[in-house]
TrEMBL record:
Protein name: Gfo/Idh/MocA family oxidoreductase
SUPFAM superfamilies the record matches: Glyceraldehyde-3-phosphate dehydrogenase-like, C-terminal domain, NAD(P)-binding Rossmann-fold domains
Pfam families recorded: GFO_IDH_MocA (PF01408), GFO_IDH_MocA_C3 (PF22725)
Ranges where the Gfo/Idh/MocA-like oxidoreductase N-terminal domain occurs: 8-122
Keyword Zinc-finger: no
Domain of life per record: Bacteria
Keyword Disulfide bond: no
All residue ranges annotated as the GFO/IDH/MocA-like oxidoreductase domain in the record: 142-233
Keywords per UniProt: Oxidoreductase
Secretion signal, residue range per the UniProt entry: none
Coiled-coil region list: none
Family: Belongs to the Gfo/Idh/MocA family.
């Protein structure tokens, strides 16, 4: 049996504490350090989860020597610096979503991963629901998808920064559904037309609702219809999904086992397999990838596309016109080169003959 992977976690806030519990439940990993700018907070969080003997510090540099990998659970604005620092120490990184706040920064993180030769993976937790994976298997068995739709309607009162954002739904939430659509369709997005708006009763300052239509390379259309100010008859946090194919239709309410009605009229309820879910699933895949060298499904080169879907949707809503994903990536690549602070990162970005080929689009 392999020795547990020694993890250094960065971030001791609310999500950081969820990850401490996640790490404690996985026998394949062991926490060897906790980093947070607020060292007292880190000490408190570690003690609360039974890590009284685990050292805490204000920087990765202080504890990197005793770790095999880093889990980045900081705020999105800190992801580029935290992940790049860890990679610079030769440590693979599992980062909470989003990879970064912009495609430009995300591409710089791709370069940092390439330079280090170490894995940078994003925890897209919606990819690890048992029912969602069963839904993906049902769709694959039905054949080519003509249309995939997701309805997302919730009425949360977060308070704080989300209610002040210009595009709270698209930027803070929709990446989950956009990323999952890529997995379910099995192809990559080409373009998007999006309209975002704010209903008159909304308690958000910015646009808390949006409708987006993505065209995928294989001809599939993905339609997202969502709102964060929709009290009553709310959907699952995963959304409510429907996939239409020539062989029948698959439906998932976001929580329970998905169902299929075949073209013959026969109804089939999916069987769920026993597998780790949500952040436990992403941690399990990360550990397996570090040990085997396999490429996980949310490896940094691939995950940039999900970030680009969000950025393209925001641009489309602002312009009132469709936006091509390739155009977003091409512009961001030029910006990433221009703004790169590390000369090695800049040289790596400049060495890419074509950003789309580098990302295997």
């Amino acid at each position: 049996m392999s020795e547990p992977l020694r993890l250094l976690q960065v971030g001791a806030g609310g999500m950081g504490r969820a990850w401490l519990g996640n790490i404690a439940k996985n026998p394949d990993v062991v926490l060897v350090g906790l980093v947070d700018l607020d060292v007292a907070l880190a000490r408190e969080a570690a003690d609360e989860h039974g890590y009284g003997d685990v050292p805490v510090a204000a920087s990765i540099d202080e504890l990197a020597g005793g770790a095999d990998a880093v889990v980045d659970v900081t705020v999105p604005a800190a992801h580029p610096v935290v992940s790049a620092t860890a990679l610079g120490h030769g440590l693979p990184v599992l980062s909470e979503k989003p990879l970064a706040e912009s495609v430009r920064q995300s591409l710089q993180m791709v370069a940092a991963s390439e330079l280090s030769g170490k894995l940078l993976m994003v925890s897209q937790s919606r990819r690890y629901f048992r029912a969602g994976n069963a839904f993906a298997r049902q769709i694959a068995e039905l054949g080519a998808v003509g249309s995939l739709s997701c309805e997302f309607f919730k009425g949360p009162h977060f308070g704080g920064f989300r209610e002040r954002m210009a595009e709270p739904l698209l930027i803070d939430m929709a990446i989950h559904q956009f990323d999952l659509a890529r997995k379910l369709i099995g192809s990559e997005p080409v373009s998007v037309y999006c309209e975002s708006y704010n209903p008159q009763w909304s308690w958000f300052d910015g646009n808390a609702a949006a409708n987006a239509v993505f065209a995928f390379a294989n001809g599939t259309r993905f339609v997202f219809n969502g709102s964060w100010c929709a009290p009553g008859l709310e959907t699952s946090w995963n959304g409510r999904w429907r996939a239409s194919t020539g062989g029948g239709t698959a439906y998932w309410d976001g929580d329970n086992a998905p169902t299929v009605e075949l073209a013959s009229g026969e109804a089939v309820v999916a069987e769920l397999t026993d597998e780790p879910e949500e952040i436990a699933g992403s941690l399990a895949e990360f550990v397996a990838a570090v040990r085997s060298g396999a490429v996980p499904q949310s490896e940094v080169h691939s995950n940039v596309i999900s970030v680009a879907m969000v950025e393209a949707a925001v641009q489309s809503a602002a312009k009132g016109a469709p936006v091509r994903i390739a155009d977003v990536l091409t512009v961001a690549h030029a910006e990433a080169i221009e703004t790169a602070v590390d000369p090695a990162v800049r040289a790596c970005l400049e060495s890419w003959p074509d950003v789309l080929k580098t990302l295997e689009l």
